[in-house]
Amino acid sequence: MKKKQRIGILFGGRSGEHEVSLLSAASILKAIDKKKYDVVPIGITKEGRWVTASDAHALLTGQQAPENPLLAGDPAATPTAAVIKKGEAVIIPPVPAESLQPLQLSASAELARSRPALDLDVIFPVLHGTFGEDGTIQGLFELADIAYVGSGVLGSAAGMDKAAMKRLFAAAGLPQTPWLSLLRSEWNANPRACTKKIEAALKYPVFVKPANLGSSVGISKVHDRSELAAAMDLAASFDRKLVIEQGVGGPGAKPRELEVAVLGNDSPEASVVGEIVPGAEFYDYDAKYLSDTSVPIIPAKLTAAESKQIRQMAVEAFKACDCAGLARVDFLMEPAGKKGSKKKPRIFLNEINTLPGFTSISMYPKLWGASGLPYKQLIDRLIQLASERHQEKRQTQFSRV
To answer: How far apart are alpha carbons 150 and 135 in whole angstroms?
Structure first.
């Protein structure tokens, strides 16, 4: 009988998207084929503690994780290795310095010693936002030499940092709306000079965003100067780097918001194009998760040429950021001109999301469902891609001897 792969589903985390992560993980845990995989849930609390088994289930269902001591099956194991390789460590302290202290083994550590290691074949991280899709956790997986779903350190970091991402898009010749980036320290030191710089480069309305955050957290649409300071302060509360983008379509005009799901490693493929008609002025956090007024249209009503162009741009964006596994690529399309106008609406690349929402009703799985790949099979394919990428990496030599 073929041995079942052991899959760690990693969720939660310290980011502002903690709750979204729990929803994604719950959907995956419900849908994943238990006949094909042994599944190990691994949670991270908002405080940064790592929990497994029943404690992870408690976190997933909104219960308080118990204050257990750090457990490990092997006194020589590091705390991170204990969690990733064994699956039996219960808590990792949130303060890095504490992990340098000797492991304090409780009475139940003897039981842990007697259990076989839950060596994981693949980790499926469902950690949206900071510390989950920004390359930090991916670096940990690389150090542990374990296969994982999604982009590597570079692709994850580039996909998270909107300023770095936009520079990569520009280098690849992909069309974007005008934008600029400022540091929180620049804004705090001289708001008036920053305002002048923004207004010299961009036209209202503008969107102000934290560079390193997702799910539209901390994003504001600014119609004029009177709204700019509050938007900058909000974005600066979430990140040291701010991105300001010129709106598409001009005052009073709503661009079309289009999305494409990309799947693959070195030879990625694009799904059909979908469209979101937001119930709010733009597709903000509330419109995404707290309201049912936003309407997804799959496939989007586009010409064959427009659809082909957007899908090609999605793959190019994926490659420009050196992504792997999965990503959702978002576009803005100018509103249609006056009736009879021969001018074609321009299409702008907005951003790439390397760990998009993964509930069964999230756009990424729905786009692939509409493209002929249902949710459960999509999970299988992502696990397969993670294994293939890990095997390919093993062809790389890291030492001269």
So the answer is: 10
What domain range includes position 356?
Answer: 256-391
What span, in angstroms and rounded, lies between the C-alpha atoms of 56 and 29? 12
Specify whether 237 is located in the same domain as 215.
Answer: yes
205 DSSP assignment: S
40 with 110, same domain: the answer is yes
Mean pLDDT of 260-271: 98
Give the C-alpha distances (Å, rounded to integers) separating 400 from 238, 396, 397. 43, 11, 8
In a domain, 271, yes or no: yes
> Domain count of the chain?
3
Give the confidence band of 102 by pLDDT, cuts at 50, 70, 90. very low
What order do you get walking across the sheet with 347-353 strand by strand?
295-297, 269-277, 256-264, 325-333, 347-353
* CA pair distance 323, 61, nearest whole angstrom: 32
The sign one gets for the Cα dihedral 198, 202, 205, 209 is negative
User: Tell me: the pLDDT tens digits for 205-218?
Assistant: 999 999 987 656 78
Domain boundary among 228, 246, 264: 246
Residue 251 pLDDT level (bands cut at 50, 70, 90) = confident
Pairing of strands 256-264, 37-44: unpaired
Tokens standing for 235?
């974005």
Indicate whether 9 and 134 sit together in one domain: yes
Q: Are 241 and 163 in contact (CB under 8 A)?
A: yes
Q: Which of 33, 60, 12, 37 is CA-nearest to residue 378?
A: 33
**DSSP secondary structure string, 28-61?**
HHHHS-TTTEEEEEEEE-TTS-EEEHHHHHHHHT
Of 128, 148, 168, which residue is a domain's last?
148
CATH number at residue 48: 3.40.50.20
Bridge partners of 243, per DSSP, are: 181, 209
Q: Which residue has the higher pLDDT, 244 or 44?
A: 244
The dihedral over CA atoms of 260, 212, 153, 79, expressed in degrees to the nearest 10, equals -120
- Do 108 and 227 lie in one domain? The reply is no
Give the separation between CA 302 and CA 323, rounded to whole angstroms.
26
**162 is a domain residue:** no
**Per the domain annotation, does 233 fall within a domain?**
yes
pLDDT given for residue 62 in this prediction? 63
**pTM for this entry:** 0.82
| CATH number of the domain encompassing residue 348 | 3.30.470.20
Confirm whether 73 is domain-assigned.
yes
Q: How far apart are CA 175 and CA 332, in angstroms?
A: 10
